[in-house]
Amino acid sequence: MKSIVLTVTVLCASLLAGAQQKQPVYLDLSQPLEKRVENALSLMTTEEKVSLCYAQSKFSSKGVPRLGIPEVWTDDGPHGIREEVLWDEWGGAGWTNDSCTAFPALTCLAASFNPKLSLLYGKSIGEEARYRNKTVLLGPGVNIYRTPLNGRNFEYMGEDPYLSSHMVVPYIQGVQSIGVAACVKHFALNNQEEWRGHINVDLSDRALYEIYLPAFKAAVQEGKAWSIMGAYNQFRGEHCCHNDLLLNKILKNDWKFDGVVISDWGGVHSTDQAVKNGLDLEMGTYTDGLTTKGKFPYSDYYLANPFLKGIKEGKYDVALLDDKARRILRLIFRTTMSANRPFGRFVSPEHSEAARKIAQEGIVLLKNDKQFFPVPGGKFKKIAVIGENADRSLVIGGGSSSLKVAYEKSPLDGLIAKYGKDHITYSLGYASGPALYGREEPSKLNADSLINAAVEVAKQADIVFFIGGLNKNHFQDCEGGDRKSFSLPFGQDKLIDALLKVNKNTAVVLLSGNAVSMPWINKVPAIMQGWYLGSEAGSALAEVISGEVNPSGKLPFSFPKKLEDNAAHFYGKISYPGDSINQYYKEDILVGYRWFDTKKIAPQYPFGYGLSYTSFNLGTLSTDKSVYGKEDIIKVRFTVKNTGARYGAEVAQLYVNDPVCSVSRPLKELKAFEKVFLQPGETKNVEMDVKVSDFAFYDESKKDWNLESGDFVLQLGNSSGNITQKLKITVK
Ligand code: GLC
């Protein structure tokens, strides 16, 4: 009897102990992340580890159901959360709960020159992704603006590596603060859409390290990006989605990236290279980007059964598999299984306010003769608004960043709200045809009758706002194709001329993600560069046009007078777009203003340029010392005074020149900027920290950065084309 009692007691005790047995470490939210990762990895089978490394649907990949480890759900894009699609489709699934807030395109964010807005942007879009239960946001993009023809420039942050680096980091920090992974793209050298799937890009190491990599390096090392997207193109003979130099050596070894390399959709072409050259997660294979459905089961993916087979046969080292699985687990534990993952919000008033503020601060006033702008309400009785972009949706189109929105205030909506519908007459003026992907379909409307109707309206008006530009149709700022011309499309130049003939009070407002030619520039009294401004486009534009908001945007890329003035188009086809197999960036480090300065070519409007409704004075440039060591920080001090009658903001820009160096260097390179807000008459003392180490150049003979001692010239101005003060310092 006694033994039975004893047995039962022992049994109960062990059951009790078993019931209280600690959770496996990976589920213990109090455990450090790396411990949870290792524990989860140790519990997984080889099949489960491989299953993490490739897609299970158009935008998702597997978790480990047996262990309760969730799937990875990715979603475009950089400007808002893409609508849900069917399991293996590109088109929308027709859900009714996924209409998002459209934030302005990243060229607009870059044009604000305000990193605080990048943080606001990241948090806002991160909250929308979080609310939609996304693990990874497929953005931001930071490919450098090399040619005005690139179809996707509107998704990126301009021509300067320093500006892109400083504007992308807070965006990533913002997104990831909400427990959603950013996925910086497209790594690397995806600077055009022409032949994007295969073109084999090459360039000097100096250009690679000084121009095309810095924004990605900042995204990884300062932004701490949890994932990065391989680009479609090749670089020195290997596709960027499995490129040993880019992914193993530079990204993972040199930059210590501990996140996940995700392929672009259809960017993987080899099991061997995908296994060995640093790819972690294969998405979208068997699609050529955005136009064909998968014809093969996901288990046929390069990192699926072929990878598993290779592991089992001992062809591939298990350590390679464990590294991929570990990185993907780390991503999951940083997001969906994070102990303190915040909650999101979707289409909130705060997100609208953020979108509007970013749009307001990104709009660039390019020309404003005789104070054409601002146009206060009540000043004119009859205002003509001409142009398709005043009333066309610009949150759709453009490819993978296209959005289904909860609302979109058009420029016409905003102007009517601002000036009253009795004072606004609208005329289409030109027509572009439907927003299609991969092909264009001209409008069926008769261009001449549209112009004649618009001219009639302009004749009767006191003032005319022409609102045109590009529109994210194919070839007009759209993924999958570059622009075919530097000119405005759809007969806009002809229309602008016709309007000016009957009404000289015609201002041009361009909505685009790229520079365009401006044959009418000397006849037009005012020009405003708007971007794809998102859901609050109409409010922001009307507030700037009416003067409620003083424009403070600066160009994140140069506007050349003609295409041939642009560096990428100077050296012929091999430089752009390549010979359809290979391409060489012959302008080397001289991208954007670096080119215009060195070749003494005057741009139409320079990088960093933008007018205001008030005026500013940058004064008394000084530094804390005149001789510095190579690891020192220079305290650059100056004043900014608002010498006009309106509140506004100026962007002080500090460029540096290295007059004596063993290699040729650009005449100036941006090394600091600060946006300063001032009341009329107000003066502020500004101090900027400038790292001496930022003055280094990439020395190909040393295969490393090199900073030669000697004199450097600090150049302060409010545009790359307007340096008002210089100061020499010496580096020992
Ligand atoms: C597209 C784009 C990439 C996007 C992905 C998913 O082809 O290149 O930016 O995030 O596929 O749509």
Topology of helices and strands:
Layout: H1 2-19, H2 33-43, H3 46-51, E1 60-61, E2 72-75, H4 106-111, H5 115-131, E3 136-137, H6 161-176, E4 181-187, E5 200-202, H7 205-212, H8 214-221, E6 227-230, E7 234-235, E8 238-239, H9 244-254, E9 260-262, H10 271-276, H11 305-312, H12 318-334, H13 349-362, E10 364-368, E11 383-386, H14 411-419, E12 424-427, H15 447-460, E13 463-469, H16 492-502, E14 506-511, E15 526-530, H17 537-546, E16 582-584, H18 593-598, E17 616-623, E18 627-628, E19 633-642, E20 648-657, E21 669-678, E22 683-691, E23 697-699, E24 704-706, E25 710-719, E26 722-731
Parallel strand pairs: 2-3, 3-4, 4-6, 5-7, 5-16, 6-9, 11-12, 11-13, 13-14, 14-15, 18-26
Antiparallel strand pairs: 1-2, 7-8, 10-15, 17-19, 19-22, 20-21, 20-25, 23-24, 25-26
Helix pairs in contact: 2-12, 5-6, 5-13, 6-8, 13-17, 14-17, 15-16
The structure holds alpha-D-glucopyranose (GLC).
Give a brief description.
With 732 residues, the protein is of the alpha/beta class.
How many helices does DSSP assign?
A: 18
Helix/strand/pairing class, anyone? alpha/beta
CATH superfamily of the largest domain: Glycoside hydrolase, family 3, N-terminal domain
Which band does the percent of strand residues land in? 15-25%
Number of strands: 26
CATH fold naming of the largest domain: TIM Barrel
Q: How do the strands of the widest beta sheet line up side by side? A: 1-2-3-4-6-9
What's the architecture of the largest domain, going by CATH? Alpha-Beta Barrel
- Please give the share of residues in helix: 25-40%
* Main sheet characteristics: 6 strands, mixed
